[in-house]
Automatic annotation (TrEMBL):
Transmembrane segments: none annotated. The keyword Protease does not apply. GO terms for biological process: isoleucine biosynthetic process; L-serine catabolic process; L-threonine catabolic process. This is Threonine synthase. Residues 70-323 form the Tryptophan synthase beta chain-like PALP domain. InterPro entries: Ser/Thr_Dehydratase (IPR050147), TrpB-like_PALP (IPR001926), TrpB-like_PALP_sf (IPR036052).
Length: 345
């Protein structure tokens, strides 16, 4: 079932993305034990914990991503997914759900990676996708998007304006609007990052996550919580949300500078903000805000280590310098590929 994070009301698992009270929704299911399907090295490994039927899975299965340890930091290489970001996990579950519900046309809005992922997965799943993006979106990403055959709607204005236009189009044309910020099935995909981390390296002390809309931050926490509730693990990691200066929703808002380099998390008022606050508190975690200069430095370091990621991924690595690292273990997901920023054909 779907449960409202605000008023606790429950709904059946249909395509609803918000409660009638406008609260955000999470999928809630009870699992008795953790038994991955070990013959698979992709998301089917965790099928018993996904709210989808195997019959409807897209043919392209996001793989178990590798981890790479550098000193006391374990990088989780999420940028190695088929479309170059962790968003494929959320898209995979969402598309399976759409196929199950026989929905053939949707409206989404995104600043880049989520749109690219949905454009690819919906194309080969015969789902017509209207994608609303801002005219400010990086031109390399627009160029990629236009090659997938999705219906691209380019909106003059900021991210909030894009959102408004998408909602309007959805209402006027009676096509479901499926914002990944709100879509509860998206988090069911991203929670598998936690399952993989657990299988690969156990429970780290800290998970340090670039955080804008919170689709990865909340998903990872949900995955660890489920493992905890199944009795599989006996402690939980501390969750560190890393944000971009000038766009903070959880840390104190910086007025002095805006980190526009980390465009993937430049979301000043995400709808799942209250959930993220609760996770920081419950996990004994914190929030760290990173400026543009430091992001650039961290990105250069990551490139030189061999990780070709996008600037948004570098903020989490940059945040590590705020910790005294003696004996502590960190997992840092590297969320999106840097190669997309160089691609055109
Ligand atoms: Zn509610």
């Amino acid at each position: 079932m779907l449960r409202c994070t605000k008023c606790n009301r429950v709904y059946e698992e249909d395509l609803r993305i918000q409660c009638e009270c406008e609260g955000t929704l999470l999928v809630e299911r009870k699992y008795s034990s953790f038994a991955p399907q070990r013959r698979y090295f992709d998301m089917r490994r965790y099928l018993p914990y996904l709210p989808v039927n195997e019959r409807f899975l897209p043919y392209l299965h996001p793989p178990v991503t590798p981890v790479s340890k550098v000193k006391n930091v374990i990088f989780k290489l999420e940028y190695l997914h088929p479309t170059g970001s962790f968003k494929d996990r959320g898209t995979y579950v969402t598309v399976a759900k759409l196929k199950e519900l026989k929905i053939k046309e949707i409206v989404i809005d995104s600043s880049g990676n989520a749109a690219i992922s949905m454009a690819v997965y919906s194309a080969f799943s015969n789902i017509r996708t209207h994608i609303f993006v801002s005219s400010n979106t990086r031109k390399e990403k627009l160029s990629l998007l236009s090659s997938f055959g999705a219906e691209l709607h380019i909106v003059e204005g900021d991210r909030m304006k894009v959102h408004e236009e998408a909602v309007k189009y959805s209402r006027e044309n009676n096509i479901p609007y499926l914002s990944h910020w709100l879509n509860p099935y998206f988090l069911e995909g991203t929670k598998t990052v936690a399952y993989e981390i657990y299988e690969q390296v156990g429970v780290p002390e800290y998970v340090v996550v670039p955080t804008g809309s919170g689709t990865l931050f909340i998903g990872i926490w949900k995955g660890f919580k489920e493992l905890f509730e199944m009795g599989e693990i006996s402690r939980l990691p501390k969750m560190i949300a890393v944000q971009a200066k000038g766009f903070e929703s959880l840390c104190k808002r910086s007025n002095s500078e805006a980190n526009v380099l980390a465009d993937g998390i430049a979301i000043p008022n995400p709808p799942r903000k209250e959930e993220m606050f609760r996770i920081i508190k419950e996990s004994n975690g914190s929030c760290i805000s990173i400026g543009e200069r430091v992001t650039r430095q961290a990105l250069t370091e990551l490139y030189r280590m061999g990780f070709i990621v996008e600037p948004t991924s570098a903020v989490a690595y940059a945040a590590l310098k705020f910790f005294e690292d003696e004996g502590k273990s960190f997992v840092v997901p590297l969320t999106g590929s840097g190669l997309k920023l160089h691609s055109s054909f």
